[in-house]
């Protein structure tokens, strides 16, 4: 292979002189092509999706170690490798350099070609290879092409500077989730003698219908701890969310205001929250999974070095998976983990074997629960506000009610909806309901821990979900439409006042924005900012015929029925598919069967020691 640095444009048929070592320009070309092939796509993804950085609690140090360092090391390793090869065989170095250029060009060209229809996937891949080869040949033969690439080399610095200067990125990474600031001095000035502990539990992607039996009561056989809470609290049976995404719904829950689409869920954009409200009188223990709404100076967060490294490794792996899904041909990318069901943990080892070696990251979704329970145990001296957002029963679905994990062959646990048939929807719904059984066990563990430390009776306990999920054939699972709005908007809401031991059902129509004013009224706390919600305990609100919900992908406001009849249709469909009740293990079986459902039933039978299985219907 001819030396790239000394090729002549005028005499392409002659063999150019070879250099004894790689030139500085060639090294710059490697860094530049890596910038266009790797760095720029990654920076573009992260800047457009600050929620990804929020979910990973990304600090500036995390970004430097998990994103910038790998992006710098990749081209550096290639340049050093070429230098070593040049010391052994210059011709081999030249060929290696040209091959690397070709590969990077293909990586740059493949994403734009994905605009072609999926039916032309083979043509897309072939086109990327041919175009990459053509440009690589031009690079090897034309000094003008190499000079042009040299002029592009400042992009190596420009891309990261543009990325870091992006407003949302800078605001997130400057949040400092691991604060060193001291807590504000506690005072009772805004309270009327209230020293009541406050516990707020937010589960994720939990539609109310999943908990109900045919009588619209909590199915106590399947979900005994939810049923127990309903017997000791006020259950707002017609509560609805205000958005189909955590990043909008949770800010509304903690502020009492409708979501504001331009904002991202960080404390700088939402300074007035339940955390700032109770900070003068309560210790704040907030464990967020998709937001950073609690100001970092209001809580002490101490992560071990192992946990810090795990978090950075998760950030690196998840970023790599997103990038590979962009640059890889569709037929290869479809074998990578899905990235549309959550903001983190794409490569769960039970969903994709690639992350088997990541060990403890398998328990990412339970990490906040462990930290929450530890905080309950360690905060006994004064009143505390405990806030937990847990990414369960959110997909992917891999937990049985007893907490054991399972996996299915050809696993596809995310029902996106529109193109799924009845059997696929039933399988996904069944797995969701089984995983909800595990959430019920978690609830029992939380309540048990609160009782153990004499907190349950004297606490105000609020349990809800950020939004629901739809299991309708022909409808999206999460993107709200007029036909699935009842499933996504309806969420469980239980509020147990301090000392409350007898529950009742309130069927008035309330929204998540009403939760904070309701808590404030019960505890006689004055909210010092303008809110959209109103206290449910302060008398009957004006009845609504419609509510508005934010469809987050547009974002666009959608009007939905305040008490939709479609919710009853969804409940009837669930009962038709799964009935109600369960055995002593809280296990039940669907009435619709398929090969994957039978495979799951066989695993359940083995785990629980069930000898008699239902016959296929």
Question: Can you characterise this structure?
Answer:
The protein has helices spanning 24-48, 50-55, 60-88, 90-113, 121-141, 143-151, 155-165, 167-173, 224-230, 246-255, 274-278, 305-327, 330-333, 364-378, 422-452, 485-489, 515-522, 566-578, 595-608, and strands at 198-204, 234-236, 283-287, 384-393, 460-465, 493-496, 504-506, 546-551, 556-561. The protein has 617 residues and is an alpha/beta fold. It has 2 domains: 1-174 and 300-347, no CATH class; 198-289 and 365-545, 3-Layer(aba) Sandwich (Alkaline Phosphatase, subunit A), CATH 3.40.720. It has a 7-stranded mixed sheet with strand order 3-4-1-5-6-2-7. The protein has a two-stranded antiparallel ribbon with strand order 8-9. It starts with 23 loop residues before the first helix and ends in a 9-residue tail after the last helix.
């Amino acid at each position: 292979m001819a030396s790239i640095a000394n090729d002549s444009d005028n005499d392409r048929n002659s063999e150019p002189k070879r250099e004894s070592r790689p030139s500085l320009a060639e090294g710059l070309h490697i860094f530049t092509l890596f910038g266009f092939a790797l760095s720029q796509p990654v920076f573009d993804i992260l800047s457009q999706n600050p929620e990804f950085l929020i979910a990973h609690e990304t600090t500036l140090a995390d970004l430097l170690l998990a994103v910038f360092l790998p992006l710098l090391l990749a081209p550096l390793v290639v340049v050093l490798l070429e230098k070593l090869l040049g010391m052994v065989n210059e011709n081999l170095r030249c060929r290696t350099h040209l091959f690397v250029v070709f590969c990077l060009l293909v990586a740059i060209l493949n994403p734009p070609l994905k605009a072609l229809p999926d039916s032309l996937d083979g043509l897309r891949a072939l086109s990327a290879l041919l175009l990459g080869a053509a440009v690589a040949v031009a690079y090897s033969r034309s000094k003008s092409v190499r000079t042009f690439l040299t002029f592009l080399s400042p992009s190596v610095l420009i891309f990261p500077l543009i990325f870091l200067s992006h407003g949302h990125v800078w605001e997130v990474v400057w949040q400092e989730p691991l604060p060193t600031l001291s807590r504000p001095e506690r005072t009772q000035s805004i309270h009327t003698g209230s020293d009541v502990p406050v516990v707020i539990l937010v589960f994720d992607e939990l539609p109310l219908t999943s908990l109900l039996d045919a009588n619209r009561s909590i199915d106590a056989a399947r979900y005994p701890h939810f049923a127990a809470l309903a017997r000791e609290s006020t259950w707002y049976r017609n509560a609805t969310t205000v958005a189909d995404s955590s990043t909008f719904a949770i800010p509304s829950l903690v502020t009492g205001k409708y979501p504001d689409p331009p904002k991202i869920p960080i404390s700088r954009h939402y300074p007035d929250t339940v955390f700032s409200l109770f900070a003068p009188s309560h210790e704040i223990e907030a464990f967020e999974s998709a937001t950073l709404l609690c100001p970092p100076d209001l809580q002490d967060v101490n992560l071990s070095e192992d946990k810090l490294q795990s978090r950075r490794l998760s950030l690196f792996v998840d970023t790599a998976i997103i990038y590979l899904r962009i640059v890889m041909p569709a037929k290869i990318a479809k074998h990578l983990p899905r990235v549309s069901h959550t903001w983190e943990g794409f490569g769960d080892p039970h969903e994709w074997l690639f992350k088997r070696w990541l060990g403890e990251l398998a328990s990412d979704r339970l990490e906040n629960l462990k930290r929450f329970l530890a905080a309950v145990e360690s905060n006994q001296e004064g009143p505390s506000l405990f806030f937990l957002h847990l990414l369960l029963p959110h997909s992917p679905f891999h937990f049985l009610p007893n907490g054991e994990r399972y996996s299915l062959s050809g696993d596809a646990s995310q029902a996106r909806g529109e193109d799924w048939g009845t059997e696929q929807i039933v399988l996904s719904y069944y797995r969701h309901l089984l995983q909800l059984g595990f959430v019920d066990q978690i609830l029992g563990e939380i309540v048990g821990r609160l009782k153990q430390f004499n907190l349950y009776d004297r606490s105000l306990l609020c349990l809800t979900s950020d939004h629901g999920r739809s299991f309708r054939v022909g409808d999206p699972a999460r993107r709200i439409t007029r036909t699935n709005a009842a499933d996504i908007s309806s969420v469980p809401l239980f509020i147990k006042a301090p000392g409350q031991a007898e529950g009742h059902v309130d069927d008035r129509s309330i929204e998540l924005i009403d939760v904070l004013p309701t808590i404030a009224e019960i505890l006689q706390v004055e909210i010092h900012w303008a809110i959209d919600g109103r206290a449910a305990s302060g008398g009957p609100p004006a009845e609504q015929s419609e509510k508005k919900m934010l469809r987050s992908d547009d974002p666009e406001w959608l009007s939905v029925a305040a008490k939709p009849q479609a919710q009853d249709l969804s409940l009837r469909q669930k009962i038709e598919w799964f009935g109600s009740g369960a055995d002593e293990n809280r296990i039940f079986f669907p009435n619709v069967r398929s090969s994957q459902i039978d495979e799951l039933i066989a695993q359940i039978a083995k785990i629980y020691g069930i000898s008699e299985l239902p016959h296929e219907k």
